[in-house]
Every structure is written in C-alpha cells, then in structure tokens.
Specification:
Number of helices: 9
Helix content: 25-40%
Radius of gyration: 23 Å
Strand order of the largest sheet: 6-3-2-7-8-9-10
Shape: elongated
CATH topology of the largest domain: Rossmann fold
CATH class of the largest domain: Alpha Beta
CATH superfamily of the largest domain: Formyl transferase, N-terminal domain
Number of domains: 2
Oligomer: single chain
Structural class: alpha+beta
C-alpha cells in the first residue's frame, strides 16, 4: 500500500538574518525530551503551552504537567490556557511573535492557533502515519502485534493526524516490549526527528508528502476501562500482546472468581508458554510462587499483578497473602 499521494516542496523563506522563534506545546514526559533537545541545541523557545494544573491522586492535589515543571526549571515563558479559542490566550500567543510552533502530545488545536506562525505548526506523532492516527498509538501498535512502528512529523491541518508528512523514522518493537518501554524508545527517536525537521525548515526547503487514504489504515482510538479487560478466549499471543500493550498504564485487568469472592485484578507483566492442554479456558494453576492461566494455545503466566487498594507486586508476593481455592478461575 502506498502511504503517500505526492511530494511537495515548500519554501519557508527563512532569511539569513532571521532566526526561528519557537512556541512549544506539550504536556507529558514524552514531550519533555523534545523540548529539552530544542533547548540543548540553542533554539529560541519563546513560549511553552501546556495543560492547566489538574487534581490527581487520593488527596486530589493539583499536579503540574511534566512540561510545566521543565519550563519553570529552564525559565521559559509559560501559558496554561483552559480554552485555546479564548481571545486573551490568542492575544498572548500572538504577542510571543513565534514563526514556528511545535506540538508533542498536546491536544487538537483550533485553526486560529495552528495557522498563526509564518512557518506553520508541525506535530510529532508516535506512529508511522497514516497508520495509528489517534490518542493511543503506542498501546495499539503492541496490542495489535506489530513488529515495527515509528515516529512522524507532519504539518497540522483541521483534522486529526491527517496533515502532510515531513519526516518519518521506523522503530522495531521487540517481542517483550511493553507500552512503557516502547514509549521511551519513541520519545528519544522522536526528539531527534523533531530536530531534523527544524533543521530542514532552517535550510529553507521542506519536502512534504500527502497521506493517502486507504481502507485498511489501523486506528489508535482512545482507550477506556472496557478496552483493558482481558478476553481469555482469545489466542495466547493476542492475550499476551494485550497485557504488554497496556502496561504500565492503564493496565489490563480481569475478574478473578475465588469461591463467592470476586476480585478485579490488574496485570502488569506476564509471559506465555505455548503448549497443549485439556483444561478449560480461564482455569488457574498455582503454587506458592507461580500463577498461570490456561488459554487457547497454552498458558499465560502472571508475573506482576495488583489487587484492589494495593500496590502492584510480584505475583509470588501476592500469593503469600491471597488464599486461592482450587476452583478459582478468571473470566
């Protein structure tokens, strides 16, 4: 399948005496690596836009985003708008006089924002577009059993992740990668790709490629609680990919029935053993240190789990205090 429809050369007209003035938009740790790379390479970051502080944790204390903490540490101008269409915010953004905006793990921008700078607004996305457009590309790439993913920079348009592609870089997905480990790989490769994109803009010529629409483009839609539930009737590899694709967040979960007790169990780490058996799907096999589930094609061994109201622990630790009946099973 051809990914691109055409290649277009865009002249940015960056004069010799003109410097890039960058506004950076992002919120989580994934975005910090890119912002740090821009600062380390002495690019002029005239402003940082991040999410407002939000209550989190049991105490519901206001938490600052990772990008905000970094911006304050580096003394960067910071804006935290609640409404990106607000006139006061738009005026403050325009006053920064940026000629380029870079977005990493932020939110959808209104036209008034992404059209503002002279050289446009580009985004870093954690997939090889057009595949895995959407909110959770890292999770879905693993959950779908992909062996390769990557990162893409593209100019933002008025739809989600559909703009013209600037650069892409492939990244292999290891058989034991989790969403967490792949996140860290893509974070670093993505920071380098953003630098390469900025350097192209500096040189004055950017080659963009239009994304081709196709019937079989995979999506990366938002993950909800029901998405995370394990279907033990699925093949062994599908279950294994589901668990590692949701680890460490938001985590796969299952319902464990232990006599009359129902336990909602989160699973953070597992391994698989492909072998034949005659057990019913969901049957638990366990001893003092090991817990595994009979599935289609073998067993899923649970290595790190979490009981309600408890911290996540190695399964052997949990089994020390959890008295399982021989009839216990998962559904």
């Amino acid at each position: 399948m051809a990914i691109y429809e055409s290649i277009q050369k865009i002249n940015t007209n960056l004069g010799k005496s003109e410097k890039l003035r960058i506004v950076f938009m992002g919120t989580p740790d994934f975005a910090v690596a890119t912002l740090d790379a821009l600062v380390a390479h002495a690019y002029e970051v005239v402003g940082v836009i991040t999410a407002p502080d939000r209550p989190a944790g049991r105490g519901r204390k206001l938490q600052e985003s990772a990008v905000k903490k970094y911006a304050i540490e580096k003394g960067l101008t910071l804006l935290q708008p609640t409404n990106l269409k607000n006139e006061d915010f738009l005026s403050a953004l325009e006053a920064l006089q940026a000629n380029l905006q870079i977005v990493v793990a932020f939110r959808m921008l209104p036209r008034a924002v992404w059209q503002m700078p002279k050289y446009g607004t580009f985004n870093l996305h954690a997939s090889l577009l057009p595949d895995y457009r959407g909110a959770a590309p890292i999770n879905w790439a693993i959950m779908n059993g992909e062996s390769v993913t990557g990162v893409t920079t593209f100019f933002i348009d008025d739809k989600i992740d559909t703009g013209e592609i600037i650069l892409q870089e492939k990244v292999a997905i290891a058989a034991d990668d989790t969403a967490g480990s792949l996140h860290d790989k893509l974070m670093l490769v993505g920071a380098d790709l953003v630098l390469a994109t900025v350097q192209q803009i500096e040189k004055g010529i950017v080659a963009t490629q239009k994304q081709k629409e196709a019937k079989h483009i995979r999506s990366a839609y938002k993950i909800f609680k029901e998405t995370c539930e394990i279907d033990w009737k699925q093949p062994i590899n599908t279950i294994y990919n589901h668990i590692r694709g949701l680890s460490p967040y938001p985590a796969a979960w299952t319902t464990l029935k232990n006599g009359d007790t129902i336990i909602f169990l989160k699973i953070y780490q597992a391994s698989l053993a492909a072998e034949k058996h005659n057990l019913s799907i969901g049957t638990l096999l366990f001893d003092k240190t090991e817990l595994k589930v009979a599935v289609d094609g073998g067993y899923i061994k649970l290595l790190e789990i979490q009981l309600p109201g408890k911290r996540k622990m190695k399964t052997a630790e949990v089994l020390n205090g959890l008295k399982l009946l021989k009839s216990a099973y998962v559904v």
